[in-house]
């Protein structure tokens, strides 16, 4: 009994982190209708930046969050405005291939700069754990989860109550009407992507703290994000959270009860089946045009 | 009932949750004629077309094509039987040439693969598209694309062409060209049923007019008779142009 | 689009190229023979992919699945008959590999072809990864252990030369099949599906049947090429055949050469292999970057690929205003 509960608890902790790692991807898909295959590489960029900064400044990696997010915000804005924008509105294949190309290029750059080896960001409280209600929780994972939940809530509030959030939602729901109301759609798209990139980078830090990472992982994080979105819903932090938690639980349950090498099979199988059955996820598309 | 009629509509009705869009419409179309359905906006003309081509299932009534019931049949099955539709919003195969577009109609139309090249040519000729045969469809104007719709539909060897506002948005020259095409289609033996707003063209080219108002057929006859019908005039709130 | 070139000169050109290519192993040093193998193999794969992705417009991001399935099915079948003479091994492998791909693709086709565009692309990527993971983790498939392929080259010939000519023959067969499809009613139907599937169906094109047929043909041809590839490697593991960079390359061949054309994948494959294996041979660290950059430049500047550029450079015919 405790084993199942522990496995589920582990899955939830992992899932919260998956949710953060996927929310940026979800936003881009919902607002720009672009499948950003360079999402994973942006996540890794966050991780590597945190590695460098926490080493250079001698601070806890989670404290580098603001700086990393700002840097990735800028990178994301420029990336979208000058490259991805050219493929928006064209064939879906175009933006996928463009982002894939950028992903390959950045992956190679990361290999040059950081080497292809696995790296880790180890905080000072790395090996501590504590018990709650008979279940063991790893301190690092829990603080990573806490960071994820805080960031996800912040994004949800941003989207719902801020003027930027309103702009993004309006543009996503009825692009032409938004333009006619004077919204600079390109700017909004770039801002949305910037937000997405910032969150991807934040996720990278959180992931880097709990798992070893290397440039080759980028595809996995992109696909992970895709599964989360297809599971939980497009365009909303709530959808990302739901999808992430579900994926996390499925992951840990599969690893525990089927075999340690089977979580990936299950993930891909779920992806294919979900695409066939309900491609817009349990919560649907948060930006579907109001009729 | 005229048993030689190519299309028979009997007591057709369609309600959308209590809103009666079409009520008890009945008519028969003679083969080789051009019949136009006219009526004020919101009269139900497009709904009627959709009922005939199988996009919508009727609430009541029946549609017979060549004396064969087709009520509620799937759209592509109806296409196989010999009814073709040319849309107001043309959907050409953009990267293919005009000839290749029409050829698809000929290859997959009613009679299969016989005489594909001859049928393709005939389709293009009837739609006055021969000079543009090798142009990519993406290079055509709106008017030319309407011609392409018709050409492709004809190439399927359809016996009945349903044309959905073929002159909408066209300038007078383009409209006249389109009407000419419809005349050529009729003389090749294909029956034409169209929905149209352009009154002068409709009066000029139709053998018969069906006037729809608020879902019911209020007049049915040759243009010069229908034009004088007081019910029709009332439905249009007395537009004098109809009388010319 | 009207064919830019009339058939007879093209046929002559193709025959001349084939003759030239056939002479390859006789004059080229071994390194270039191996590069030639890769070129021909890639061209065949590109052509097979193009039947579904280029002609019908269903761009699969996961065709490596069929390379893997074909290779492993062949390997498992051949290893079950260790006493069989080499002459019979390859046909057995081809039968097993091709047959398994046929069954798998026919089964997957029904659900997966209901998806369009990006969803279809990603779903196929998912299928590729599922196959890879199952091969790796289920002991029966021996994916992590690896499979051995007994040598099949005749003793009188250099294995590298043998496989070169084998790939040339296979590539030629795939080219002929693709060519035949393209000029047939089936091919015209596929093109119309690519352009506007709903309108095509309304005009009477049996879209579902045609899509499934294109999917299975593409899968089987890919699988058969995978069997050859496995034999040329001699020993395979999951990672030698289920590769994400292969998944990507298949698309890039068509993109580079000209998406949807007959010779586009061939041109694209030859070019890309040449660039990565010859020009960048000593710059292994640069491969990912170069492929990525090429992809970005293609998407932004030349989405029609090489053949698209060629077409746009030809002088335009004078526009005749049509009599209206």
Write a structural description:
The complex is a heterotrimer of chains A (291), B (244) and C (324). In chain A, 71% of the residues lie in helices and 3% in strands. Chain A is mainly alpha-helical and 291 residues long. Chain A has a two-stranded antiparallel sheet. In chain A, strand 1 and strand 2 (135-138) form a beta hairpin. In chain B, helix 3 (98-108) packs across helix 4 (116-126), helix 4 runs antiparallel to helix 5 (142-155) and helix 5 runs parallel beside helix 6. Chain C has 324 residues and is mainly α. Helices cover 73% and strands 1% of the residues of chain C. Classes of the chains: A mainly alpha (291), B alpha/beta (244), C mainly alpha (324). Chains A and C meet through helix 4, helix 9 and helix 11 of A and helix 6, helix 11 and helix 13 of C.
Short description:
The complex is a heterotrimer of chains A (291), B (244) and C (324). With 291 residues, chain A is mostly helical.
Task: Quickly list its features.
heterotrimer, A: 291 residues, globular, B: 244 residues, alpha/beta
Explain the layout of strands and helices:
The complex is a heterotrimer of chains A (291), B (244) and C (324).
Chain A: H1 2-31, H2 39-57, H3 65-82, H4 92-114, E1 129-132, E2 135-138, H5 139-161, H6 163-173, H7 175-180, H8 185-210, H9 218-232, H10 237-257, H11 263-277
Antiparallel strand pairs in A: 1-2
Chain B: E1 7-16, E2 19-29, E3 34-38, H1 45-53, E4 60-65, E5 68-69, H2 75-81, E6 83-86, H3 98-108, H4 116-126, H5 142-155, E7 160-164, H6 172-187, E8 191-195, H7 199-205, E9 208-213, E10 216-221, H8 223-228, H9 230-235
Parallel strand pairs in B: 3-8, 3-9, 6-7, 7-8
Antiparallel strand pairs in B: 1-2, 1-4, 4-5, 9-10
Helix pairs in contact in B: 3-4, 3-5, 4-5, 5-6
Chain C: H1 7-22, H2 24-27, H3 30-55, H4 64-79, H5 86-112, H6 117-137, E1 147-148, H7 159-183, H8 185-202, H9 207-233, E2 235-236, H10 238-241, H11 244-257, H12 264-279, H13 287-301, H14 305-313
Antiparallel strand pairs in C: 1-2
**Percent helix among the residues of chain C?**
over 70%
Percentage of residues in helical conformation of chain A = over 70%
Assess the beta-strand content of chain C as a share of residues: under 5%
Measured distance between first and last alpha carbons of chain C: 23 Å
Which structural class should the secondary elements of chain C be placed in?
mainly alpha
What's the alpha carbon Rg of chain C, rounded to whole Å? 20 Å
Count of alpha/pi helices of chain A:
11
